[in-house]
């Protein structure tokens, strides 16, 4: 009874926050005038960036949670085990190739991978899919092509590095964590494992929409927090000041990786932002921005922490950062 009441209160708060967001989005000027509030241009810019991040991410997150719910309702553990590669290392390549056909960004792929791991997908395959899908999918390839028509080497290197680095990161995480379970389990999920949820008399389609809505509100709060933090930092960040500190390629690469983490752009749109830095940063540092951001940024870090154990996330963050940085220095060495 208490759990039901608590969940109802959480759902009500979530709905109210969502309604407040819609009101502020549609009538923000009228609200400010009504309460006679006066904000600086920087905070108005933060508001615009915050809304743009949410508008970019929410459609893809909806797609992700719906696909996740479909997997929960229609894909059995036995069916998944039949199609999964048996070899722990060769399967990494298959997982990277699978990422190339998922038309989803970094926000959408997290619930999908989480659900697949809960269904029995090995952890290392899930890691590869998390890394590969936001970079290799066809929408990202097309947007990168249009943004860098003057230098298609950026497109080729982005796709190639996305493929190989995802495999390397998956390999490293497998060597460290093996086949151990690194997912966070909620109390409701643990109860569900004992069979109480499976006894709920819903059709599979009803179950799909139930799981999708539940996961959307669950993920939504982390997305909103991450988007807000990213928009605040982005709104007050002086990009020209960053460029003035650069003295070598390693610094440029590190700065652009940090910028990719902070800005938390959707991978379907980040190529156009990266191209706007072409006059200030080198091609290698722009490539670092395009490869690192989809794998790790501020908003998906919060999502990782929500659904995976803290130690696993910290090791994953370090691995992504180290592998990406070193690979960019190698690219700079061989292509320049």
TrEMBL record:
Does the record bear Zinc in its keywords? Answer: no
Q: Which Pfam family, an example, fits this chain?
A: ArsP_1
Spans through the membrane: 12-32, 44-69, 89-113, 125-148, 154-177, 219-237, 252-274, 286-307, 313-335
Q: Major location, coarse class?
A: membrane
InterPro entries to which the protein is assigned, alphabetical:
DUF318, UPF0718
Membrane topology per the entry is: Multi-pass membrane protein
Name the keywords, alphabetized. Answer: Cell membrane, Membrane, Transmembrane, Transmembrane helix
Coiled-coil annotation reads none
Where would you find this protein in the cell?
Cell membrane
Tell me which family the UniProt entry assigns to this protein.
Belongs to the UPF0718 family.
Protein name, per record: Uncharacterized membrane protein YraQ (UPF0718 family)
Give the species.
Guptibacillus hwajinpoensis
Mind giving the lineage of the organism this protein is from? Bacteria, Bacillati, Bacillota, Bacilli, Bacillales
């Amino acid at each position: 009874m208490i759990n039901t009441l608590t969940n109802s209160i959480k759902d009500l708060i979530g709905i109210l926050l969502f309604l407040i967001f819609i009101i502020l989005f549609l009538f923000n000027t009228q609200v400010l005038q009504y309460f006679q509030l006066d904000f600086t241009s920087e905070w108005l810019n933060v508001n615009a960036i915050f809304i743009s991040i949410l508008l970019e991410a929410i459609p893809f997150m909806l797609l992700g949670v719906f696909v996740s719910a479909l997997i929960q309702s229609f894909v059995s553990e036995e069916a998944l085990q039949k199609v999964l590669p048996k070899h722990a290392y060769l399967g990494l390549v298959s997982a990277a190739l699978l990422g190339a056909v998922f038309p989803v960004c970094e926000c959408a792929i997290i619930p999908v991978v989480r659900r697949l791991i809960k269904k029995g997908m090995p952890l290392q395959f899930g890691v590869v899919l998390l890394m590969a899908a936001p970079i290799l999918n066809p929408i990202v390839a097309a947007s990168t092509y249009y943004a860098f028509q003057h230098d298609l080497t950026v497109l080729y290197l982005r796709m190639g590095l996305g493929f190989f680095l995802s495999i390397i990161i998956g390999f490293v995480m497998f060597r460290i964590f093996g086949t151990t379970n690194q997912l966070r389990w909620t109390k409701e999920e643990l109860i569900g494992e004992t069979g109480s949820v499976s006894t709920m008399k819903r059709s599979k389609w009803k179950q799909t929409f139930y799981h999708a809505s539940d996961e959307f509100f669950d993920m939504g709060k982390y997305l909103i927090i991450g988007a807000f933090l990213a928009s605040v930092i982005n709104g007050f960040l002086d990009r020209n000041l960053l460029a003035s500190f650069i003295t070598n390629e390693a610094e440029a690469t590190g700065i652009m990786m940090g910028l990719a983490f902070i800005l938390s752009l959707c991978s379907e749109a980040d190529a156009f932002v990266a191209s706007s830095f072409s006059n200030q940063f080198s091609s290698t540092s722009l490539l670092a921005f395009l490869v690192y951001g989809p794998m790790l940024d501020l908003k998906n870090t919060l999502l990782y922490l929500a659904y995976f154990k803290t130690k696993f996330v910290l090791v994953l963050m370090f691995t992504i950062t180290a592998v990406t940085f070193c690979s960019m220095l190698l690219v700079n060495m061989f292509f320049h």
